[in-house]
Amino acid sequence: MQSRQIVIIGAGVVGASIARELSKREADVLVLERATDVCEGTSKANSGIVHSGYDAKPGTMKAKFNIEGSRLMPELSKELDFPFKNNGSLILCFDEADRNKLNELLERGNKNGVEGLKILSGDEVRAMEPNVSDSVVAALYAPTGGIVDPFLLNVAMAENAAVNGVEFSFDTEVTKVAKCSEGGYEIKAVRHPSIRNGQEEDADCEIHADIVINAAGVYADKFHNMVSESKIHITPRKGEYCLLDKKVGGYVSATLFQLPTAKGKGVLVTPTVHGNLMVGPTATDVEDHDMTDTSAEGLNSVISTGGLSVKALPSRGNIITSFAGLRAHEDGGDFIIKEVNDAPGFIDAAGIESPGLTAAPAIGKYVAELTDGILGLKMKRDFESVRKGIPCISLADQAKREELIAKNPLYAKVICRCELVTEGEIVDAIHGPIGAVTLDGVKRRVRAGMGRCQAGFCTPKQVNILARELGVDISRITKKGGDSVLLTGFPKEEPGAWVTSPKGGADHE
Amino acid sequence: MNKHVSILIIGGGPAGLAAGVAAHKAGVHDILIVERDIRLGGILNQCIHNGFGLHTFKEELTGPEYADRYIKQVEELKVPYRLATIVTDLKLSDDGHTKIVTTMDEEGGLTVYEADAVVLAMGCRERARGALNIPGERPAGIYTAGTAQYFVNLEGRMPGREVVILGSGDIGLIMARRMTLEGASVKLVAELQPYSGGLKRNIVQCLDDYGIPLMLSHTVVKIHGEKRLTGVTIAEVDDHLSPIPGTEQYYDCDTLLLSCGLLPENELSGQLGVTLSPVTSGAVVNESLETSIPGVFSCGNVLHVHDLVDYVSEEASAAGNHAAEYIKEISEGVNVPDSDDKAAEGRVIVVTDGGVRYSVPSILRPDHMADLTTIRFRVGAVFKDVDVVTYADDREVMRIHKRVMAPGEMEQTVLRKTDLLKEGTPSTYRITIENKQS
User: Fold this and answer.
1) Would the pLDDT of B407 be above 50?
2) Which residue of A has its CA nearest to B86?
3) Helix, strand or coil for residue A412?
4) Residue B38 contacts A, CB cutoff 8 Å
5) Whether A299 contacts A318, CB under 8 Å
6) A208 is known as an active-site residue
């Protein structure tokens, strides 16, 4: 059994943020992640909004971390080089009778310490956002609201943690956490075969950890309940989204919310940092913790409900993809971020639903401080706080493009033409501190295949680049790890002959 | 220093090649074909089945063979081309006459060209799952038919073994046969519309001959499988194309191929400000295949999606000729672009109705028309035993009996200039469908 000082379960945005904060300290940190990459759960399928903080009830953990996170985000985006834009938010009110709710939000926001909130008349709103629906009678304007690339926020924090010494073990599914009589915890896990570890079959591993940090998203209740008598319960709350073409990305510039309901902040219409238009999410409680399927009803309701916010949602012919994510809703309705009472050294970061993405940077700091309190960690002197992202050719001007191409001609070799992503960027994504090993991994880092043709043309090219750079046959390249293989063997082989062995492929005669 | 070129052709597929050859033969040799891929020929390179060239060469060729006929001409005539080069920007100079084309490639980096004329020949892309908005999970194993074709024909790899195909476009039909021949089991082709989107001959040769069922008025309503596709749910649709509850059927499969329509790739044209047709998603062009911007021509699948490459070549040759004429005219100082008012004078607008969805061209300028003008169009539903009738204003010009017309098959008529102008210049030329005249 290996022995580690701190084990974090989960490499989503919360786990990555905690890892980064801990990497500022002299500490031995290991992150266990079930998926083959960072950002594979709730972190990859959400609105990408930096909430200003008017919504959470004053005094709650949600309010505290939302405000702190939103204040940290602009600076962090510069330090870690991920896209963030302060585009402001509008909470739309459609009925004079609901005006009091708008006032309540204003009061709540003021109490939470949100800066610059004010209520605008319908006409003032439309002067600011001409495409806002004529039935909007008033709105709460939150100038500090913003949008962020949720993938790159997650990747950037994880990469920076890795550069500063945190170890990540992917494809590693924790099956059991138990208190040890002599202190600390014994973790049992299964490491699944993947390109990252070169294994051919599942391998069991056992780890002793002094501190366990539970950042397991929708599965956080499972691990908490293994070590504590005071049980928590998380309900996956599904949200479906539609992403629209960049052609209509400028339809609105601020994020448009509708007055919140009991289940969440309602369906929003927002530009993304990359210039698409996004509409969603729905909110449906589900049983399955992995099922992120969309439904016809859900997608229809996204468009019809989201459409209420604007004059004419340009969805027709412009939807380029749709997806769903699961929010980790805990029964108590608030974030649970603390050392578990009856499990010393076991720290929960559980129930992190919206505004979890916004809150993540603040949660990381807080959990690291909790850990300090237990272990008395010392700060590192040589912490490297700055991360440089992968250059983005599509956003670079001509001079910048020339400069980049002079350094590396592969920055002129376009692979994904819809998003103008070059081979140079894809190679960078594969060889980053936590490199991409899947199509989805490349997509989330450099946007290849994220455009209107949705990887129709560039899939074969990307598969070949991945295989070449990783030194494997193309048959081993997957969409998102595990059995998500893209190719099933060679022509004329017997049907059913293909096995999803990650090893196979190159031995064809 | 920007490089000057008389005609810059964007795209080295069948349209770009034919346009280049025609422009060269028409006497303009200062041409450049810019091709994104590492070889000329475009999508034909992955179309290894035969059936190409029956009209052009009176023989049955494979896609690569067909492309090769044009590539050979390009080589023999020494029409300049650049490979593995992508056009990143396309705009007009400040005076509006010169087209500024920026390209990017691994060897040369960024290059800026000043072109007098541009031929848009970028082709089309396939409609993807996202655009179809099919509900369900997002596993591996869902490909457009063209992507699957690339893997099988160019990479020699199978994208799957147990296949369902959604959409009966020609590539989907071709891939039903290809996958079957390569050892996969193709369970069915589901088509949302009550009619096939592909050519009749492909239904017979690719489905019927292999016993693959074509289920019309059916669609995929759910995608299953977390990592790799495990199955799809298919349902029948009603007259409004909405799934009928209770008709759902589950099919085990590891692969879903999509052949649900092709979309002209006009992002660059849009950048330039070319007027696009909402029906075809291609440029609005006149009899010379010239777009709303003088000196910018369009042809092939970027103009409107064709069924047969032969007609792409024919259309692109015309575009190449017209581009060459344009170059000659501006060098003689003839073609000073007209003001909008003057340009609109004497134009005949081609109107389509009665089931005809669009026409290419959609504007006719009598003073630029040749004796014969080919007008291509598609219908919006299946028509049997009807007449295609054309009118110059209210005067009947042509009446052609058609036994059957379908959306999947492009139609064409040839208009004689003298017929159009018999009683002076009309303001419209209308193409419509009427009951058969007894």
Assistant:
1) yes
2) A414
3) helix
4) no
5) no
6) no
In a shared domain, residues A114 and A252:
yes
In the numeric block, which tokens belong to residue A257? 């919310």
In A, which residues are within 8 Å of B140 by CB distance? 478-480, 484-486
* Residues of the domain holding A11: 2-43+151-233+333-375
- A163/A310 same-domain check: no
The number of angstroms, rounded, from the C-alpha of A265 to the middle of its chain's C-alpha atoms is 18
* A453 interaction partners in chain B (CB closer than 8 Å): 125-126, 128
Using CA atoms, how far apart are residues B147 and B152, in angstroms rounded to an integer?
Answer: 9
Q: Is the pLDDT of residue A114 over 60?
A: yes
Domain identity same for A411 and A489 = yes
Q: Which residue of A has its CA nearest to B181?
A: A492
Task: State the pLDDT confidence band at B249, using cuts at 50, 70 and 90.
Answer: very high
Give the residue from B299, B60, B304, B368 showing the smallest Cα distance to B201: B60
Whether the predicted pLDDT of A506 surpasses 50? no
Least confident of A82-86, A456-460, A493-497, B389-393: A493-497
Across the interface, do B104 and A452 touch by the CB < 8 Å criterion? no
Closest CA to A66 of A365, A362, A264: A362
Given this model, what pLDDT does residue A507 score?
40
Token reading at B282: 């291609």
Do A470 and A423 share a structural domain? yes
| pLDDT average, residue stretch A421-444 | 98
**Lowest mean pLDDT across A476-480, B398-402, B434-438:** B434-438
In percent, the amount of chain A with pLDDT more than 70 equals: 96
Mean pLDDT of A14-25: 98
When scoring B110, B111, B149, B157 by the number of chain A Cβ atoms within 10 A, the one with the most, hence best to mutate, is B157
What average pLDDT score do residues A337-343 get? Answer: 98
**In order of start, what are the domains of chain B with their CATH numbers?**
3-125+263-337 (3.50.50.60), 128-260 (3.50.50.60), 363-435 (2.60.40)
Would you call B161 and A488 a contact, using CB atoms and an 8 Å cutoff? yes
Does residue A65 lie within any of the structural domains?
Answer: no
> Would you give the end-to-end CA distance of chain B in angstroms?
67
> Do A136 and A172 sit in the same domain of this protein?
no
pLDDT mean across residues, chain A: 94
Q: What is the mean pLDDT of residues A27-34?
A: 98
Residue A55: is it exposed, middle or buried by C-beta count within 10 angstroms (0-12/13-18/19+)? buried
Residue in B49, B262, B232 with CA at minimum distance from that of residue B168: B262
Count of structural domains, chain A: 3
Measure CB to CB from residue B136 to each of A294, A493, A494 and give the nearest one.
Answer: A294
What count of other Cβ atoms lies within 10 Å of the Cβ of residue B201? 12
B67-B71-B76 Cα angle (round to 5): 150
Q: Are residues A132 and A220 in the same domain?
A: no
Nearest to A412 among B36, B105, B141 (CB): B105
Q: Which of A296, A398, A412 faces B106 most closely, judged by CB atoms?
A: A412
Torsion of CA B410, B416, B417, B420, to 10 degrees: -80
Question: What would the two tokens of residue A318 be?
Answer: 């412009």
The 8-class DSSP code of residue A65 comes to H
Residue A59 placed within a domain: no
CATH number (domain holding residue A128): 3.30.9.10
Assigned domain for A50 exists: no
Residues 147-176 in B contacting A (C-alpha not used; CB under 8 Å):
147, 150-152, 154-162
Sign of CA dihedral B332, B337, B341, B343: positive
Instruction: List phi, psi (to 5°) of B73.
Output: -65, -40
What confidence score (pLDDT) does residue A494 get?
64
State pLDDT tens for residues B162-212. 999 999 999 999 999 999 999 999 999 999 999 998 899 999 999 999 999
